[in-house]
Each structure stands twice: as C-alpha cells, then as structure tokens.
Design a protein that fits this description.
The chain is of the alpha+beta class. The chain is built from 6 helices and 3 strands; from the N terminus they run ααβααββαα. The chain has a 3-stranded antiparallel beta sheet.
Amino acid sequence: MLDRSCIEAIDPLLEILDGKWTLPLLLELFVGTRRFGELRRRLHPISPKTLTDRLRVLEDKGIITRTLYPGVPLHVEYELTERGWKLQPIFAAMWTWVQEDDLNANKKNQL
C-alpha cells in the first residue's frame, strides 16, 4: 500500500512528465540521440517553442544532455543521461499495465 510519503516522493517525477509533449519526446530519445529538427519532425505538430521548453526542463532536471556542435551549419543533439535511461522501466511498466488492461477489457466485451 502506498502512503503519503511515497506520493510526495514521486511528485517531482510527475512534474517532469507533466506536459503534453514530454512523454512522446522521451520515447523518441529512448530510440537514440536526436537533433532538434528530427524531434520536431517526429513530434509534428509540436511548435519549436514548446519543444525548446520541454527540452530545457528535461535538461535542467538531468534527464537529457544537450551537445552543441560548432560549424556551419551549427547543430545540437539531445540524448538521455543515465538518469533519463532509468525512466525506461517505468515506461515499460506503464505499457504492460495498459496492455493487460486492454486485454481484460476485450475479454469482458466478448462475454
């Protein structure tokens, strides 16, 4: 059973994940390192401002790193940190939960 201290302890995580584009953004980064333009195309119709805001929050929280490569053209790559990779089992558990819930719902509908 969860107690109040557990709920309070996960509040910072929920704040990080709270945002329309944060989960899809993290899922893209679980695949591998991405450039800003790649993320924008894959998350269409996200606005550049929203994408920038989400990336900054994740970087500030130590979930992703931002690497700037000088040159012409200048480009930036984003990738998960070790802390960010630790979120993957949480996503996997949520996926399993959804799949089991969908399976149970389908069984009930067939009865």
